[in-house]
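Fill-in record for Rae1-like protein.
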Amino acid sequence: MAFSGGFGVTAAQGATNPNNDFQVANPPNDGISSLSWSPTANFLVSTSWDCEVYCYDVQANGQAVPKASIKHDKPALCSAWMHDGSAVFSGGCDNMVKKWDLATNTPTQIAAHDLPIRHLAWIPEVGLLVTGSWDKTLKYWDARQPTPTLQVQLPERCYALSCTHPLLVVGCAERHLQIFNLSNPQTPYRSIQSPLKYQTRCVATFPDKSGYLIGSIEGRVAVNHVEDSLASKNFTFKCHREQADIYAVNSISFHPRHGTFVTTGSDGVFNFWDKDSKQRLKQMQKCNAPIPCGAFNRDGSIFAYAVSYDWSKGGQDPMASAQGGNNIFLHATEETEVKPRPPANRVGGRR
């Protein structure tokens, strides 16, 4: 499907949509917690604090047509697709995972924890779903079985999770990081403390499986490698900051073709980066509310991002009246934004 920057935008321009991106009609009614794309077509799924899981069909002209939705009993926090695009997994504060068969529009509970499920990932190489929970466990599920095939105790609550088989990285509370080699999923390959000084917000495994990125609430990203032999390539850099104001890095996503990545932040900005040349490729215009999540589609031609409250200021949000609701935008990526560049000396405010 061709998707270029020439389509019309259906919403008024301004602070709500400063990057002139396509605005998805009929967005969720509360804070948006995750976005995930089908690996086989341009179908986009979102989860929300309104307990709903929504599926949109993104068409060639940029129109995003709502297709269907299912409901959890409590806020939905995470989503992932099966490798063949036939089903969506979603989890959340009702402590369960639902498998949504799109052909029959039927959701079925297939997994459960004792506390909310914060993250999950489908691992096609082994045909299992992995779920991370605030109950301090990591569980692996065969969707055809009612009990987990494996349960691993975590040192703390799961706050972040990313997998590129066989590398699985779990970010936990108190800055714990658990690095797994899925050839031996019962035992962490490494258990370390985050190199960042504050709470882990997100992680993203490298496409080449040699390392991972960590984002924290202090507006900083760490580039870390699994093996000590590559430790000289590790570094951290500052981002999502405005003078004295520091914002959380809410999500990190790698481009599927170029290996560059994008960060989204509580400052309402998303930035494109190249870790290998150590530089920012482009900083986009600031939205009027935080960007809690974002994701590239299967070929990297579209970056979807949500603009909604992310709870970074707690239950009382002083900007709530100015946010303009909850929105999803579709950004048609340009080569200059996502294609690697020759090395430079700095990336962001490198430490």
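KEY FINDING: Confidence is low (pLDDT under 50) at residues 1-14, 318-322.
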